[in-house]
C-alpha cells in the first residue's frame, strides 16, 4: 500500500516499485489523502478533482495497481487530525498490507505531504490496538518505508534502492496519464509550459517527463521508517522487487 498526499505522487515517487510488485503477483493499492483539487493554474476545484480521479484510474491501469482510492479532502487543507488518523487506520486495517510506503512526515515542502507522512505514522502505531473502532485490528504492524519527494531529498536516506528500468515505460505512462500535472500545471509552475507536447503524442510525452523528472525516474529509493515492524534484509527481499538492493539493514 502506497500512501501519499496527492494523486500523481505514488506514481512519480514509487510507481516503478508498484509496477514491479504488481507484476510479481502482489496486490498493490494507492491511497491519496487529498483529491488534488488545488493543483492547476486554470481549472477550478470541482472539475479538477474529477479530472484527477480519471487520470488516477488510467495511471493505475498502466502500473497494474488494483485499487486507487482518493479521499475527499481539498488540496492544501490536509491536517494530521484524529478524524483523518482514524480514516487512514481503517484503510490500513481493511487492506491489511505487509508493506506500507509513505511520505516523510518532517521537513520542508508542501504541508500536505508532511501531514500525510504524519498521518500514516500515527495510524500505523495504532493498527494493532484492539479497542479502537476502526475495523478489525491487525495482528502485527506492516513494514514501513519512506519515499522521497521534491523537498525531502536533503534529509532522505537511501536504505533501499529499486532498479525500475524493467518497468520504466509503464511508470512514464502512469505519469503521462496525469496530464493535468506533468503536461500542464508543473510546466506552468516551472516556466516551460510552452515546451510541453500534445497529450496525444505518447512518445513525446514520455520523453518530456523523462527529461524534466529524471531524478525520480532512474531509480526509486526508500528509507526505513522509524515506525512499523522492524525488518531485516531477508524479509525485505521477500517484500520488495527482485531488483531492490538494501543498504544499512542488518540481517535477521
Tell me what the structure shows.
- With 252 residues, the protein is an alpha/beta fold.
- The chain has a single domain (2-164, 218-246), classed as 3-Layer(aba) Sandwich (Rossmann fold).
- It is 41% helix and 13% strand.
- It has helices spanning 9-23, 45-63, 82-95, 111-125, 168-177, 179-190, 202-212, 233-239; strands at 2-4, 29-32, 67-70, 99-103, 143-147, 160-163, 219-224, 244-246.
- The strands form two sheets. The protein has a five-stranded mixed beta sheet with strand order 4-5-7-6-8. Strands 1-2-3 form a three-stranded parallel beta sheet.
- Helix 4 (111-125) links the parallel strand 4 and strand 5.
- Helix 1 (9-23) packs across helix 5 (168-177), helix 2 packs antiparallel against helix 5 (168-177) and helix 3 (82-95) crosses helix 4.
- The model has no long low-confidence stretch (mean pLDDT 96).
| Strand arrangement, major sheet | 4-5-7-6-8
Describe the main β-sheet briefly: 5 strands, mixed
Tally of DSSP β-strands: 8
Catalogue the unreliable spans.
Answer: none
Order of helices and strands: EHEHEHEHEEHHHEHE
The CATH superfamily is known as LmbE-like
Amino acid at each position: 500500500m502506497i500512501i501519499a498526499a496527492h494523486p500523481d505522487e505514488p506514481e512519480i515517487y514509487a510507481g516503478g516499485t508498484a509496477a514491479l510488485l504488481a507484476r510479481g503477483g502482489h496486490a498493490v493499492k494507492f491511497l491519496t489523502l487529498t483529491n488534488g483539487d488545488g493543483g492547476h493554474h486554470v481549472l477550478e476545484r470541482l472539475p479538477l478533482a474529477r479530472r484527477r480521479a480519471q487520470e488516477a484510474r488510467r495511471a493505475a491501469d498502466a502500473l497494474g495497481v488494483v485499487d486507487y482510492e482518493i479521499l475527499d479532502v481539498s488540496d492544501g487543507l490536509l491536517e494530521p487530525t484524529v478524524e483523518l488518523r482514524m480514516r487512514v487506520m481503517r484503510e490500513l486495517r481493511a487492506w491489511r498490507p505487509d508493506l506500507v510506503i509513505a511520505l516523510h512526515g518532517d521537513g520542508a515542502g508542501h504541508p500536505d505531504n508532511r501531514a500525510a507522512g504524519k498521518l500514516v505514522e500515527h495510524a500505523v502505531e495504532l493498527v494493532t490496538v484492539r479497542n479502537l473502532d476502526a475495523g478489525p485490528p491487525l495482528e502485527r504492524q506492516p513494514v514501513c518505508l519512506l519515499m522521497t519527494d521534491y523537498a525531502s531529498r536533503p534529509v532522505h536516506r537511501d536504505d533501499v534502492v529499486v532498479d525500475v528500468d524493467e518497468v520504466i515505460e509503464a511508470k512514464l505512462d502512469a505519469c503521462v496519464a496525469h496530464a493535468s500535472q506533468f503536461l500542464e500545471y508543473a510546466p506552468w509552475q516551472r516556466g516551460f509550459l510552452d515546451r510541453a507536447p500534445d497529450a496525444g503524442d505518447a512518445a513525446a510525452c514520455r520523453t518530456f517527463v523523462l527529461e524534466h523528472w529524471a531524478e525520480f525516474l532512474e531509480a526509486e529509493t526508500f528509507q526505513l521508517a522509524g515506525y512499523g515492524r522492524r525488518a531485516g534484509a531477508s524479509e525485505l527481499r521477500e517484500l520488495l522487487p527482485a531488483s531492490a538492493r538494501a543498504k544499512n539493514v542488518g540481517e535477521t
